Amino acid sequence: DKYYFGSGNQQVPGEAPAVSAQEKVLGFRPSDVAVTRSGEGLKGKIMKATYLGTTMDYTIEIDGEHFRTAIETHEAITNDLMFKEGEPCVINFRALHWFNKEELKEVEEL
């Protein structure tokens, strides 16, 4: 099976989910997002870039889905990862977590 991010046609990298549910939801921690300017990965766009002193906080859009991540400011400066709003980026994930969509509905109702 192939899984795609958002409403687009970019395939989610990595192993197939271990969840056997009919409908699955992908989750990840902000710290598991690796942002670069180029290379292999999902193509995204920086929607918001916020300087928070020791960290840069980014809101990223990929195929209609938005999520946040943060990079330590010194790392962003050293590795040319000080993005401006509207700039393209490439996303990879250090870890992905798959969930049964039906089970998540119970959590949403709490």
Structure write-up:
By secondary structure, the chain is mainly β. Helix content is 13%, strand content 40%. It contains two helices and seven strands. The strands form two sheets. It has a five-stranded antiparallel beta sheet. A hairpin with a 3-residue loop joins strand 3 and strand 4. The model has no long low-confidence stretch (mean pLDDT 88).
Note the topology.
Elements lengths: L23 E4 L5 E4 L5 E10 L3 E8 L2 E8 H6 L9 E6 L3 E4 H8 L2
Antiparallel strand pairs: 1-7, 2-6, 3-4, 3-6, 4-5
What is the average per-residue confidence, as pLDDT, rounded to a whole number? 88
N→C terminal distance = 32 Å
Q: Could you tell me the strand content as a percent range?
A: 35-45%
How is the main sheet built?
Answer: 5 strands, antiparallel
- Specify the helix fraction band: 10-25%
Lateral arrangement of strands in the main beta sheet: 2-6-3-4-5
Q: Determine the number of helices (DSSP H or I, runs of at least 4 residues).
A: 2
Q: Oligomeric form of this entry?
A: single chain
